[in-house]
């Protein structure tokens, strides 16, 4: 896992995220129709139904200030550092198990914990969206999308750098709905991907 200091991350933010370099028409992902949740998230919601409720008066985007970005960077780096990577097969003897990690987990476990910590720190749940992608080699992977007025940004256990979604190497398939944490929507470019497991590797 690549380590980047908070100081470096903030320098990146000052250069890129707050200079309007992302075109308006691609700043935020385009959502399509509703789609089936990942099987792991479906089981997670059955075990913890309070985590998968409607968001009420859901904000689609949060105002991204430099202070807010600092907090995203800190949460991302701390959790990436504290949680050891391990597959669901190794830890739970099942190909797909979504849960809050104690000290080890795979990609979706990092995402769940980051989302939980940010919500506890006042971020609207409707703007913190678990997202399923295909990585560079076509394997399922989960990241946390933070939907902001400056675009959609990604918290990823593979890097401590907070990146705009268009600056990642991923194909975006689907993510949680803004309005309901237990419902999911397909993303533009995802057609034909089918069901994707995200617990098959340590990343």
SSE layout and pairings?
Elements: H1 6-17, E1 31-35, H2 39-47, H3 66-82, E2 84-85, H4 88-92, E3 104-105, H5 107-120, E4 128-134, E5 140-148, E6 151-156, E7 159-164, E8 171-176, E9 184-187
Parallel strand pairs: 2-3
Antiparallel strand pairs: 1-9, 4-5, 4-8, 5-6, 6-7, 8-9
Helix pairs in contact: 1-3, 3-5
Summarize the structure.
This protein is α+β, with helices and mostly antiparallel strands and about 200 residues long.
Structure description:
The protein has five helices and nine strands. With 203 residues, it is an alpha+beta fold. It has a single domain (6-187), classed as C8orf32 fold, CATH 3.10.620. It has a seven-stranded antiparallel beta sheet with strand order 1-9-8-4-5-6-7. Strands 2-3 form a two-stranded parallel ribbon. Strand 2 (84-85), helix 4 and strand 3 form a beta-alpha-beta unit.
